[in-house]
Every structure is written in structure tokens, then in C-alpha cells.
Amino acid sequence: MQRNFGSAGAFPEASVPLNAEADPDVQLMLAVQRGDRSAFERLFEKHVRAVVGFAAQFVGTRARAEELAQDVFLQIYRTRARYVPSARFTTWLYRMVTNACLSEVRRADHRYHVQAGDHLEQHGVDDPGSIPEVATRSSEDALLSQETLSRLRVVLADLPPQQRAALLLARLEGLSYDEVATALACSVSAVKSLIHRATVTLRDRMQEEQN
Amino acid sequence: MSRCQDFREDLTAWAEGQLPARQHERVSEHVTHCPHCGAEANRLRSAIAWQQHALRAVASLDGVDPLALSARLRRELTAAANDKAPAWSLRDVWGTMLGRLALAGAAVSVAAVVLLLAIGPGMVLMPLGLEAPPPAVTQQTDFFKDYPLIERLDVLEHFDTVESVPLDDDSASQHG
User: Fold this and answer.
1) What pLDDT does B83 receive?
2) Residue B48 gets which letter from DSSP?
3) What is the pTM of this model?
4) Are residues A44 and B66, on separate chains, in Cβ contact within 8 Å?
5) Domain-by-domain residue ranges, chain B?
């Protein structure tokens, strides 16, 4: 029996070098390099929310994630003279963010288990009995129960940090496998394996929890 | 079965369209003909779609205020700029050294001028042979035959090592 799974838009065999300078964020970063502080503030305001959301999956608390995001942007500003636009700005940014997150995890031997206390700290809810609200971006998000999201946080936190980083970079930030490889400083083949294992683990653990 | 295992780790990348074209075609062919891998590919597609959606919800945080964070960052940048040590370049160091040498030279010159004014130029210039002795010395050479020695002792009178001046026995006995 033949099935038609459709084409998923495969990458070309020979990867075409990305014209990084066509990226508007790269242009902003080049302006930062020339001393344009307002360009830096625009980059910060555009990306900081996503960076905090990403970092929170590694450091556990939103306060720490905000500090980490600021550290990364401070580092970007301080090292602006050495910036070379060899990739999309997002790829470069998340390389720094991922390094910071993985360093934090390694340094503190951090095990981020999402518990009620963590939720309360993240969302500033005083009533321990209440379930913190998670921001919803669309009506689709509302279909995800808070319980499901809590379980997903726990399962995600149990993933090895490299798998978690690869999965989040691909699924959350929309980076290609090539870009994830650049961000994690590893091969595309390794990224393929990391994301596959993370995807399967997340799927199976969520199914187990449901059953 | 072993063939399925060869493709298993590629299924997620295949479902996301992240394989090179040739590899993508190979996996497509296998998945089309293998019910087991076809079913797994379908499950992975569903999982990927759900995860994309759910992870966005997990990572979205209420109350992240870019403007507030930006203000904090601005303060940090200003503080960092104030604390920052000056960036030393070889040129700066060289320039600074030359400046300091020039300053030291000027100070020495001023001190020398003050000294000359205080003790009188003759006290310094005559022993060095840069100023002629008084006329009496040149006119009465026998009387002033030890004039250079007297001048030298006069200059050195404030030193503790006068005995280091080369004195022969005759001149020492005459002065004694």
C-alpha cells in the first residue's frame, strides 16, 4: 500500500550560503557596531522577550532568566567591535544565549524541576493553591490545559540540556538544523539525533502521563 | 528490520524537511513502502506540530516588559562604561611616557635655574671652567696657584666625602 506523505520541503543538497547582510537584524547590529545605541535598544526590545522565555526553560526562575538575558545583551554590546555578520542575527544571538544557559546549568549543576514553588516564583502568585496563569497568544493556546503545560514543563526539564536546547531552538525559535548546529557548535548530524531523541522522549512521556 | 533502524533517526528531520534533498528522497521512498515507519512518521508529525504549539505556550511569559528591562540594561551599560578601565594601546602608552619624560625634564630645568639663582652662577660655572676666575687670580698666579683646588673644596664643602678629593701631601701641609 502506498501512502503519500507529501514533500516537507527538503533542503537543497548543497547548502546555499545565507546572505546574512539581507537580515534586517544584522543591519541593526552593524549599526550598533558603528556606535548607534538606539539600534542596540531596538534589537534588545525585539528579542528580549523570546530570550527570557527560552532561558527560563534552563534556569528555572523568570528573575534569573531576565538577568541572564541582560547579561547576554550586555556581552553583545561590549563585544560589538568583533561582530562579523556570518549568519542570521538570531543564530548568533541564540548561540550566545544557549552557551549562557548551558554554562548556568553546568555551573550550578542545576536541575530545573518545575514544581508549584517554581510556578509561584515565576508568576508572583501568593496563593499556593492557585494555578498560575500562563500567557496565551491565541485561542488555540487556550485549548492546552494548565495541567498539560505543567506536565510539559516537567518533562522538558528532565531532558538532557543539549537535547532541550536543540529542541527549543528548532521548535520555539524556528531555527533550521544548520542554524541549531551553529548555535550549539556541533554537527548537523548531531543536531538531527538530539532533536529526534528529544521529540520522541517528549511525545512518549506526555502520552504516559496522559495514560 | 535493520533497514528501518537505519532510517529511524532520520524520521524527525525528514518530517520537518531538514534533510538534504537526496537523503530526503531515500527516506520518502522507505516510508512510503514501510507501514511501520510510515505510522511512526505520522506520529512524529503530529508530535512535532503539537510540540511547536505547546512549547510556545510554555515559553511565553506574562509580564516581561522589554522597556523596563531595557532601562535596567541601560543603567548597567552606563555603570560598566564608568567602571571600565581605559583601553591601553601601545600608542597611548608611548604618548604617556613621552609626556611624563617631558614633564620630568621641565621640572629638572626649573630646579636647576632656581639653584643657579640661589647659589650664584659662579659657584657652579667656575669649577667647571665655564666662567673665568676673578682678575686677581690671573694677575697673582703665584699667590693663587692652588685656586682650582680652593674652588673645588668650596663647592664640595657641604659634602661628607671631602677626603676623597685628590690632595697631595704638599698642598695638604700648606693648608694645614
Assistant:
1) 65
2) H
3) 0.63
4) yes
5) 2-59, 132-176
